Amino acid sequence: MATFAYSGRTRAGQTVTGERMADTMDAAVAALRIDQILVTQINPVKDKPAAKGAGGRRRLKKVSAKSLAVFTRQFSVMIDAGLPLVQCLEILGTQEEDKAFSEVIIATRGDVESGASLADAMKKHPKTFDSLFCNMIAAGEAGGILDTILKRLATYIEKAVKLQNQVKSAMIYPVAVIVIAAVVVGVILWKVIPTFASLFAGLGADLPLPTRVVIALSNAVVRFMPFILLGIAGAVFGFRSYYATPGGRKLVDRWMLTLPVLGILLRKIAVARFCRTLSTLLSSGVSILEALDITARTAGNATVEEAILTTRRSIERGETIAVPLRETAVFPPMVVQMIGVGEVTGALDTMLSKIADFYEEEVDIAVAGLLTLLEPIMIALLGGIVGGIVIAMYMPIFSLIDKLSG
Questions:
Q1: Domain identity same for 183 and 327
Q2: Does 17 share its domain with 140?
Q3: Domain carrying residue 12
Q4: Pairing of strands 2-10, 15-22
Q5: Digits of tens for pLDDT over the chain (406 positions)?
Q6: Cβ(28)–Cβ(7) below 8 Å
Q7: Which residues contact 296 (CB under 8 A, 6 or more apart)?
C-alpha cells in the first residue's frame, strides 16, 4: 500500500492534516470521507511500514463491559468533535489502562491506517468487539453516521451492564446467605456438637429426640466430611458439564423460566434484553434478519434464543414478526401486540425501545421487591436452623437441671 499525506476539513470546519495508507489515492480519499473529512489536498509520500499491531500477534482477550462502554462513549465524543478516526483510536489506545484492551485498540488503529474499514478491523478481535458491535459500526460507516451509532452503542452497553448488575443483585444475596448458613451449620455440627455429645455421654443423660437427631447428623458430618465435600464438588461439576450441552442448557433454561418468582423476573429480563438489542440494531440500519440472528446469540437463555430463531425463519418465508413471536408463547401478549403495532406503523425500532424501557423499569421494581421479600425469609431460615440446633443441645441440660433441682 502507498502512503498519502493529506490536508482537509472536518464537518465542524476544523483543519486537519495527517497520513493515510491505501491502495490508491481515490481509496484514501474515500476512506477519509468515511471519517467525515473533506480532503483539500493529498499527495503520495514514501511508503512506511504499517503501525505495530496491524499484523502479527494479536491478543483476543475479553474486556469488561464497563471498559467497553467507556471506550465507546469517548470514541463517540471524539468523532462528533471532528477528530480523525485514526487519531481517535491512537488517543484511546494510549490512555487505556487495560493493557490487553489497549493492544487491541492500537492493532485496530493499525489496520484502519492500512486502509481497512473500522468494522473489518474490529472483526479481527471477536472477544473484544462482538458481532453486534461490529455490525453496528459497519452500518454507521456505510451511512456516514458513525458518531450517532457509537452513542447508541454506548447507551446500549451501559443499559446492558445495568441489567446484568440487577441480575447479580437478585442472585448474589440468597446464594450468599445459603452458603453462609451451610458453612455455619457445618462448623457447628463438625466442631461444637461432638463436645456436647461427649458431655451428655459422660453424664448419662436421657436425650430427647431432637438432640439425638442433631448428634446423628454431627456424627455423619464428622465421619463423611471428605465424601460430602467431594459430592458437592462432583454435583457442581456435573451440573456445569450438563448445562454445557445443548440439551442440558435448553432444559435448565426452560425450567428457570417456570419458577414461581425468579422465573417471572428472568422472563422480564429476557424481554428487556431482546427489545433493547433488536431496537438498537434496527435503528442503526441493520437488516431485520441479521438483527434477529445477532439478538438470538445475545439472548442469554436457550428458550428465548430458540424462539427468536424460529421467528427469523418465519420472516424468511415472508411472515410478519408478530405472528411467529406469538406462536412461540415465550413473550407476553402485550409485547407481541406492541411489536405488531410498531411493524404496521413502520416504527418498530421506536416501539421496541419503549418496550425495553418499560421492562427495564419492571426489572428494577421486581429486583427491589425480590430482595425485600428474601431478606426476612433468609434471616428467619438461618436463625431457625441455628436456633433449632442450639435448643436441641440445651434440652438435655434443662432436663438435668430439673432432675437436680427436684
A1: yes
A2: no
A3: 2-45
A4: antiparallel
A5: 577 777 877 777 777 777 777 667 777 777 777 667 777 788 887 544 444 443 444 444 577 888 888 898 898 888 888 888 888 888 888 888 888 888 889 888 888 888 888 888 888 888 888 877 888 888 788 777 888 888 888 888 888 888 777 777 777 777 887 888 888 888 888 888 888 888 877 777 677 888 888 888 888 888 888 888 899 899 999 998 998 888 888 899 888 888 887 788 888 888 888 888 888 888 878 888 888 888 887 787 888 888 888 888 888 888 888 888 888 888 888 888 998 898 888 888 889 989 988 988 888 888 878 778 777 888 888 888 888 888 888 888 777 777 666 5
A6: no
A7: 305, 308, 309, 312
Number of domains in the chain: 3
Strands 37-45 and 15-22: unpaired
Query: Is 163 inside any structural domain?
Result: no
- Residue 23: which CATH number? 3.10.20
User: Which of 157, 184, 210 is the last residue in one of the domains?
Assistant: 157
Question: Does residue 168 sit within a domain?
Answer: no
Q: 212 by DSSP, 3-state: which?
A: helix
Cα gap 10→104, rounded to integer Å: 26
Does residue 103 form part of some domain?
A: yes
Closest CA to 303 of 260, 264, 252, 338: 252
Is this structure's pTM higher than 0.90? no
**180 located within any domain:** yes
Give the Cα separation of 148 and 361 in Å (integer). 25
> For position 147, which CATH number holds?
1.20.81.30
Whether 110 and 258 share a structural domain: no
Residue 188 CA, chain-centre distance (Å), reads 38
